[in-house]
């Protein structure tokens, strides 16, 4: 019955309007102060520790490697939170695949997860990556 | 058909709306039973504290029931965190002295939930950073600083090489004498000083330390007390040192005062006594000449214009008599006369009449020219010889030429003018009163004679 399909298709635009729009995977609201305080007292120490550990693997990591994935760690202006979220999520899946020492991977994961926690964001592929 | 279509449309719309509005619900737990606790904020009595970086990157949570639950029921505690719309819980390990759990995430908001057979799960909000209990300090070291009489107490904390609580703690040092009461000192640093004056000499003391988050971001209770360390204070020898230090202070003050007094004395007696003795003044030719050629005072007439000597009687000196005759001649005529002077001329005797005004010490000296021969060779002792009025005291002395001796007549009338007798022997007459000579200051000092016609520099030395 052509009216059946016509009826179903008519619903689709309605569904598109009614579906909740969830373009951002981060919590809404101005949480600048809370983010800054948590970064200064906790996350900054983890990042410094990761930087110190990564210094040992500098040559190993970048030797004979193309920097095709370096763009994933850039920070875009006026989109700091989204950029940090992207970096944290990319760091999670990037180092998950590399043969790097467990200690370094662990600290990288700690920083990534801590960043996402401070920003109250989640990755696109959330559960598995976490 | 149309009715079926309409029904299916409504159902599909309803299903879609239901799915989008409700989403996923329920929660998953670590044990995978799919159940989760209700967000029921019952305040069950449990006391928890956290220990950050207890083991490498892991933090530790310790909980205890403040009120013991009934023994016939099994209770479990779990640490849960909310992710998305579900709770992720981890059961705590039950031991004899409480429930323990190691975890890594200290940023997210957590809940401690109690499960019991009789009751449904009850959860309570928990902020890990607000219940931080630091590690126990260790390594207490006590050093006595003899010079300052202070006891330096140093200690260490494991958080010095950890990330989160480094420089975020405050420490409390407790000390007491044997079996006495504890006294405490707080410090954000890893050392404390005890003053020796506040402690008893030659006594045994006990010291212990504990730590607590300073409250800027991390909060929590005090740590456990460290192991106590004992030390013995010094004996009374430092009291003697205090006496010696007092003596040094007193001596330094006395020395300072003595130096001040010496400086004042030196300043006071420098010009009069010290400098002449240490650095005597050498004769200065310039000053001596200036003294010799001292300019007269303002009131003194030094003009050589003859007209200015109008009031001066110029006596011509025709002869010179001896001094003895002059004195004999003078004796009957020593009364002062107030006659006006008369102009005279003649004689070769030059008399220098020095008139002084008693009220005005400035002198007016007139050089007598030549006395006339017919004038009385009379020496006026106190006669006036000035134009000015008032009491004038005068004294005369003579500088006579040896060549000519004037002849004096006893019966000569004494004129009103002042006449001066020539003298045979020139000699200084005694000065009356406060006469001062300005033209020949040095001649008053000594008897003029042929041998003394020249004045030497040595005579001026005394004048200076």
From TrEMBL, chain A:
Keywords: Cytokine, Disulfide bond, Glycoprotein, Growth factor, Secreted, Signal
Intracellular or extracellular location(s): Secreted
GO cellular component: extracellular space
Gene Ontology biological-process annotations: immune response
First and last residue of the signal peptide: 1-23
Top-level taxon: Eukaryota
Alphabetical list of PANTHER family matching this protein: INTERLEUKIN-7 (PTHR48492)
Protein name: Interleukin-7
Source organism of the structure: Oreotrochilus melanogaster
Automatic annotation (TrEMBL), chain B:
Signal peptide: 1-23
Glycoprotein listed as a keyword: yes
Assigned keywords, A-Z: Disulfide bond, Glycoprotein, Membrane, Phosphoprotein, Receptor, Signal, Transmembrane, Transmembrane helix, Ubl conjugation
Ranges of compositional bias, category Polar residues: 434-450
Boundaries of every Fibronectin type-III domain copy: 136-236
GO biological process: hemopoiesis; positive regulation of receptor signaling pathway via JAK-STAT
GO cellular component: external side of plasma membrane
Membrane topology (UniProt): Single-pass type I membrane protein
Localisation per UniProt entry: Membrane
Domain of life: Eukaryota
Region described as Disordered: spans on this chain: 411-450
Primary site of residence: membrane
Residues that span the membrane, as ranges: 246-270
GO molecular function: cytokine receptor activity
Family according to the record: Belongs to the type I cytokine receptor family. Type 4 subfamily.
Complex and partners: The IL7 receptor is a heterodimer of IL7R and IL2RG. The TSLP receptor is a heterodimer of CRLF2 and IL7R. Interacts with CD53.
Protein task: Receptor for interleukin-7. Also acts as a receptor for thymic stromal lymphopoietin (TSLP).
Protein name (Swiss-Prot/TrEMBL): Interleukin-7 receptor subunit alpha
Species of provenance: Oreotrochilus melanogaster
């Amino acid at each position: 019955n052509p009216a059946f399909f016509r009826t179903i298709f008519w619903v689709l635009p309605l569904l598109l309007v009614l579906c909740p729009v969830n373009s951002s995977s981060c919590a809404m609201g101005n949480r600048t102060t809370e983010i800054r305080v948590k970064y200064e007292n906790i996350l900054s120490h983890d990042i410094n520790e990761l930087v110190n550990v990564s210094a040992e693997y500098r040559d190993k990591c970048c030797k004979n490697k193309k920097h095709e994935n370096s763009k994933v760690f850039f920070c875009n202006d006026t989109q700091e939170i989204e950029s940090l979220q992207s970096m944290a999520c990319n760091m999670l899946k990037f180092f998950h695949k590399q043969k790097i020492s467990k200690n370094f991977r662990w600290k990288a994961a700690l920083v990534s997860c801590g960043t996402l926690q401070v920003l109250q964001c989640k990755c696109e592929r959330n559960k598995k990556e976490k | 058909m149309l009715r079926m279509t309409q029904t299916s449309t409504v159902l599909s719309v309803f299903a879609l709306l239901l799915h989008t509005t409700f989403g996923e619900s329920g929660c998953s737990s670590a044990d995978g039973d799919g159940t989760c606790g209700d967000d029921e904020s019952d305040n069950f009595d449990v006391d928890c504290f956290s220990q950050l970086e207890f083991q490498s990157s892991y933090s530790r949570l310790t909980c205890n029931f403040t009120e013991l639950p009934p023994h016939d029921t099994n209770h479990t505690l779990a640490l849960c965190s909310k992710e998305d719309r579900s709770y992720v819980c981890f059961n705590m390990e039950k031991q004899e002295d409480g429930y323990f759990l190691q975890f890594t995430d200290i940023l997210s908001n957590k809940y401690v939930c109690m499960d019991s057979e009789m009751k449904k799960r009850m959860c309570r909000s928990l902020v890990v950073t607000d219940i931080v209990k630091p590690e126990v300090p260790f390594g207490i070291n006590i050093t006595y600083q003899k010079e300052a009489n202070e006891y330096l107490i140093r200690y260490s904390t494991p958080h010095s090489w950890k990330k989160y609580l480094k420089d975020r703690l405050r420490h409390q040092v407790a000390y007491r004498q044997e079996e006495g009461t504890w006294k405490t000192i707080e410090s954000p640093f890893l050392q404390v000083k005890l003053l020796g004056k506040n402690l008893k000499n030659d006594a045994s003391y006990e010291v212990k330390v504990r730590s607590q988050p300073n409250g800027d971001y991390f909060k929590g209770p005090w740590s456990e007390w460290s192991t106590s360390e004992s030390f013995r204070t010094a004996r009374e020898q430092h009291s003697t040192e205090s006496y010696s230090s007092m003596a040094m202070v007193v001596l330094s003050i006395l020395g300072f005062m003595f130096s001040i007094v010496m400086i004042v004395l030196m300043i006071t007696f420098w010009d009069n006594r010290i400098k002449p003795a240490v650095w005597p003044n050498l004769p200065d030719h310039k000053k001596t000449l200036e003294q010799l050629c001292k300019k007269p005072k303002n009131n003194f007439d030094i003009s050589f214009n003859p007209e200015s000597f109008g009031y001066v009687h110029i006596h011509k000196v025709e002869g010179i008599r001896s001094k003895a005759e002059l004195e004999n001649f003078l004796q009957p005529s020593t009364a002062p006369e107030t006659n006006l002077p008369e102009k005279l001329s003649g004689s070769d005797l030059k008399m220098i009449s020095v008139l002084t005004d008693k009220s005005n010490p400035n002198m007016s000296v007139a050089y007598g020219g030549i006395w006339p021969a017919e004038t009385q060779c009379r020496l006026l002792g106190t006669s006036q010889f000035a134009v000015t009025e008032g009491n004038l005291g005068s004294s005369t002395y003579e500088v006579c030429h040896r060549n000519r001796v004037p002849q004096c007549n006893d019966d000569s009338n004494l004129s009103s003018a002042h006449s001066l007798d020539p003298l045979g022997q020139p000699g200084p007459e005694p000065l009356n009163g406060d006469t001062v000579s300005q033209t020949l200051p040095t001649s008053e000092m000594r008897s003029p004679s042929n041998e003394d016609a020249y004045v030497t520099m040595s005579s001026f030395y005394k004048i200076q």
